[in-house]
Amino acid sequence: MVSASRRLRGRGALFIFLTTLPALAIITIFTLYPIAFALWSSFSFYDLTNPEKTGFAGITNYAGALQTTGFQHSVEASVVFVIASFFLVVGLALGSALLLNEKFKGVKYLQVIVLLPWAIPFVVAGLMWRWIYDSNYGILNFALQSLGVIPSYQAWLTQPNPAMALLIVAYAWSEFPVSTLLILAGLQSVPKELYEAAVVDGARAFARFRRVTLVWLKPVLLIVFVYETLRAITVFDSIYVITKGQPADATAIISYYIYRYLFTFYDVGRASALSIIVLVVSGVLIYAYFKFLRIGSLELRAR
Amino acid sequence: MGESERVKRGVRTRTIFLYLFAVLLALWVLFPIVWTVLTSLRIEAEVRTVPPSVIPTTINNYWLLVDFAHASKLFVTSAIYFVPTIAAEMPDALRNSTIIGAAIVAINLTAGSLAAYTFSRLKFRGRWPLFLYAIASRLLPGVAVIIPFYVIIRTLGLLDTTLAVFLIHAAYTLPFSIWVLYTYLFTVPTDIEESALVDGYSRFETLRKVVFPVIWPGLVAVAIFSFMFSYNEFFFAQLLTTTAASHTVPVVVAGIGGELTTPISLVAASGIVAMIPPVVIFVIFRRRIMSGLASGAVK
Known about the structure:
The complex is a heterodimer.
Chain A: H1 2-29, H2 32-42, H3 60-67, H4 69-100, H5 107-115, H6 122-132, H7 139-146, H8 160-188, H9 192-200, H10 205-233, H11 237-242, H12 254-265, H13 268-301
Helix pairs in contact in A: 2-13, 3-13, 4-8, 4-10, 6-8, 8-10, 10-13, 12-13
Chain B: H1 3-40, H2 44-47, H3 60-66, H4 68-75, H5 90-121, H6 127-136, H7 142-155, H8 162-185, H9 191-198, H10 203-214, H11 216-232, H12 235-240, H13 249-258, H14 264-297
Helix pairs in contact in B: 1-14, 3-4, 3-14, 5-8, 5-11, 5-13, 8-11, 9-10, 11-14, 13-14
């Protein structure tokens, strides 16, 4: 008896080991060392242009990073970008998902059409939009001039505010399908009885939406909020092909800013300190989402 | 006006609005794509006109991307715009990206689902911390880890290989897949699995014959999400690849579009070619994707 149960347990351990090892091995190689490296270098003198100076730097890198005007500008631009694109993407996704959840002729095709931007890499979509925004031959200029909105063609991407707005539009186009899909999947799992009960209770359309749909969607929306916030903070590809952070760094959102800082000054320590700051801010934001959104949805999850 | 009359009118107004929004949504999504297709089907001088004109005149741009060596001899004559040689890498890039994407799907469906199963079904010490560790690793911003990633890949001697791109995409997709399947497995009743185990099936047999057939919607979701991530990923691929041996589609398209002297019609054509593999996958697996996601795989 003893040996039998022992053998079973032994095989259980082997099974656990075999099934988790491949995934954990890959994740570990590309997680533990990189985090350790980023943390270590953020507290070290590690400037590739000044290799003699090494050793413990204390908070020098952090203090220096926070005082750089470029970093402060980038933080301002990032706050604008993250908030604006978050609302645009989530708004588009929620609206589209509600529409695609209705029954009408052709909705099946529309469901596939809406997924198309997801199938297009961000750099490809970015180049498409850059051509639409072109200052000499862009269709945007043509359309706006034809409508009488602007007197002559504009170089949109050389003006800070239009550049930011157009970057956000291009980013939102690529970004909204995934969240649309997530919300649509959530909508299609809402039990019909809940709506029927609400109708019996005499709830009007908007009240039904607020009391049934939104409450049921809370867990999905939590995922969408966390996902879209992280995506916006770490946006890179769109900027790389559309604005390159220009004009005058007005669109140098934080990840792009750090990347360019790293490959302009080769100060690894300082760049690591900047990344750790981004990591901490992302972590705090995610924690806040869970704190504020989780509580109300617990009873629903326990169905 | 009778009650039924009013209801009918309400329904009609609602239908009109539904279709209005449907058309607006379709226009918003399709316009950039259609415009790119139209741009790609013209020679450069015709693209750069005011007002823009749209009649298709040539498929030479596609010819260049398919058979660069031959096509470039025939019609690349413009002195103002020059065709970057990276355009010749498009067929290689399509092959690299598809192979990496397929391998990413395979590793997520095997290593990812096995780990998710063990985390959700087996009780063992350290399960919860290990699981949290596995999924939290996804939070690292890419820019924080490019140097260590580069160092690791160089140490392994894998610079400029598709294997390097695969490893990094695997590290980024596995946490998400484990999380999705772990969540999904909780919605699946365990009775059949248990009776299969009691009947003398081994754990692996149970997995193959009982668990996988039940969780296929979750597996579809995982497959499609991880393929799209890999096919789309530019940041690390750009850093780790240098030649046609490992260049992926986004890297080549960005390379073509990065030069201001590149004909914009060629950039447009490369963008259209880049979307072909994922769009084909969407069209083939449309039903599975939609039902897979709708059945709660992403809750």
